[in-house]
Design goal:
The structure is a homodimer of 249-residue chains. Chain A has seven helices and 13 strands. The first copy, chain A, folds into two domains: 4-114, 3-Layer(aba) Sandwich (Cobalt-precorrin-4 Transmethylase, domain 1), CATH 3.40.1010; 117-243, Tetrapyrrole methylase, C-terminal domain (Methyltransferase, Cobalt-precorrin-4 Transmethylase, Domain 2, 2-Layer Sandwich). Chain A is α/β, with parallel strands linked by helices. In chain A, helix 2 (36-39) links the parallel strand 2 (31-35) and strand 3 (49-53). The N and C termini of chain A lie far apart (57 Å). Chains A and B meet through helix 1, helix 4, strand 5, helix 5 and strand 6 of A and helix 1, helix 4, strand 5, helix 5 and strand 6 of B.
Chain lengths: 249, 249
């Protein structure tokens, strides 16, 4: 069996963030599998078949990739950001575990990428420069109560935070509740960063205090970062810098 | 003023994880500043001055970089992993905030890299595929009580976890206490991953249950990942796969 599956991270958007090992995997592939906008980032070439699929069909896509590899194809499953952070790697392993026993012998590897939270952090300064957590705010795959519980504990732990999928058309209200939970446990001066379309030409970084934050500042293309109680703002002529010091004062 | 400072992530070890934008920044630099082993990853060339420094002098190094940029030099501060995750970005911004007011006008940027935790996660499967946190276990810059508090809250939140700097010669005992805290709140079957020298030729990934974990499994080159209560192990002929499903059951 000479097929393989590589689950590869394309990074947050700009091409210069794609690691050489991911570029090389794509060059070796016979098939690219992924959500439509990610597959469209791959240049077509002879010998390469592009398989676009909608979102919300992650398990179908994963099974398709594994079956093609079992048939000897060299398959790259493309994710944006890092495939191991709220992306395709877990879906592929779910499919592998539940699927044909022979799939366990397949060569399946994950190549990391720059995840949106860390690209947003770099664009703003270093707000995640101390202990932090990452929470997916979508309640499609977990109960809302668990999201709220994690938020409250993260506030109590004084983690900086990165929020993925803060708000969508199907979930317009959850993020307002997130802001309410933050306001119960954090001072009004707490720093938030709304990073939209990070590392693309449409990138927009807005730094606000918790008191000024509104739900409408987030959408599906936004990653929201919340500083810890120690996070600082450096004002200057250009964009401000937000960072969390290494020491706890 | 034509100088600049770029704080760049070299990724966890292998060259194929360095993003093209970081490679380009190094190509444009007149000066490279960093901890000795990271600077030694940069190929010498005419016109490029390499400034190696010991660890524990991060602020001196940061001031040096900023002063050189103020003098018109093009300076890359190299970090391993991602500079925004327990690395040099926060140190540079601490120095900038406390330093000469003219430094605020400098062109200072952060280029993200693949952080060790996410490279380790990719090597093991997708153990951080659901909500997770990152904790630096060194108490050099924060009180030990805060580390324990964060650990207990992270266990209560059922985050997967990534631990940086779990153990060193100067801090031989802290990681034993970390394992004790985990044992208070997690089942003996909880999955841990000890990822040593991740993405280098010496990479070693050990997957163990909490009941079997010992402090000696970690050292300064190890990143430790702890699964959530949902994290699963797929046994197979080769290395096992550890992943956290996207859904909470």
């Amino acid at each position: 069996m000479s097929g393989w599956v590589i689950i590869a991270g394309l990074g947050p958007g700009r091409e210069s963030c794609i690691t050489p090992e991911v570029t090389e995997a794509i060059a070796q592939a016979t098939d690219i599998v992924g959500y439509i906008p990610y597959v469209r980032r791959i240049a077509p070439r002879a010998g390469l078949t592009l398989h676009e699929s909608d979102n919300r069909v992650e398990l179908d896509r994963a099974r398709h990739a594994l079956q093609m590899a079992a048939d000897g194809r060299r398959v790259v499953v493309v994710s944006s950001g890092d495939p191991g952070v709220f992306a395709m790697a877990s879906a592929v392993f779910e499919a592998l575990e539940a699927g044909d026993a022979t799939w366990r012998a397949l060569d399946v590897r994950v190549l990391p990428g720059i995840t949106a939270m860390l690209a947003a952090s770099a664009a703003a300064g270093a707000p995640l420069g101390h202990d932090f957590c990452a929470i997916n705010l979508s309640d499609n795959l977990k109960p809302w109560d668990l999201i709220e519980k994690r938020l409250r504990l993260a506030v109590e732990a004084d983690f900086a935070m990165g929020f993925y999928n803060p708000r969508s058309k199907a979930r317009p209200d959850g993020f307002a509740r997130v802001l309410d939970v933050l306001r119960e446990g954090c001072a009004p001066e707490r720093l938030l960063i709304f990073a939209r379309a990070v590392s693309t030409p449409e990138q927009k970084i807005d730094v606000v205090r918790l008191a000024e934050a509104t739900p409408e500042m987030a959408d599906m293309r936004t990653v929201v970062l919340v500083g810890s109680s120690q996070t600082r703002l450096i004002e200057r002529a250009g964009d401000p810098i937000v960072y969390t010091p290494r020491s706890v004062s």
